[in-house]
Design goal:
- There is one protein chain.
- The protein is mainly alpha-helical.
- It has one domain.
- 74% of the residues lie in helices and 1% in strands.
- The protein has 14 helices and 2 strands; from the N terminus they run ααααααββαααααααα.
- A hairpin with a 2-residue loop joins β1 and β2.
- The protein starts with 9 loop residues before the first helix and ends with a helix.
Length: 319
Amino acid sequence: MPRRLLKQPPAAVTLMVSSLVLFVVVAVASGNLRQLTLAGLTGLLDRMVPLALVAIGQTFVIIAGSIDLSVANLVSVAAVTTSFVMQGRSEMIVPGCALALTIAAAIGAINGGLIAVARVNPFIATLGMGLCLQGLLSTAFSNFAGSVPHAFEWLAYGFAGPIQAPVLLIVLLTAAASLVLRNTRFGAHLYGLGGNRESARQSGVAVNRVLIGAHVLSGLGAGVAGVYLAARLGSGAPWIGRDGVYDLQSIAVAVIGGTALAGGRGGPWGSFAGALLFATLDASFTMLDIDSFLQQVLRGGIVVAAVAWQARRIVGHVA
């Protein structure tokens, strides 16, 4: 892979290194030294995959000055669609994945159309879409739907040489997203749109088209996460996206990774680093045997502190 695709901003590198240092310190302090083996570190990376997939898509819409609260239920839609179409048959792998991703992209396009064309507030448009999806899922399915063939589980548990397949997947998609944002006209227009919509419009940017494109990519990120979770669980269920809180968590890790909620600033490697931090916190809480309710309190406090630090860093940089 070209080195420039893997080039990461210093803040993302710092966040990744800090997360790994925290993981090592907690493993040593708690006596869980087996977590420092290759299997333990691979498990840490594997833990972050679904959230990172959603967060990468979310990064596109936040950079554009929008937001997507439908992603959690969209993850469930993609997972259920994948397993329901496959029904355990290998010959249905491609149709199942294709249909799930097509639906995800279509829902993203509808979200973008509501925001860009109908001028609906992004928060309201995507929240409403998420509620619609949740209602449809609850009406059509009450339990796990269908199943995936054993061969398809390679996506979650297989290896490509020495590298676990989901880890390779998330690195490749993050690199591809970085390439799109940094080296294409669409990426430049996206940053311009998030920085100042009116200026972007006056500069000839097709604002509506770019915004819809960002939401399509957000939908695809959630769709890929749903397909991955179907492979990991062996089936899709209507609650897996909602229970994962992928809507709010994807926004949190993107912001922690340096993406500005006001738009115009950020990148996928920062979101990757934010997802790694969340995975590290989960693993650390488990190793320290912290009560689940206290975990939520600690995580919330850490998120607020990290976002506050990020905001001060950005203000200081601008000043």
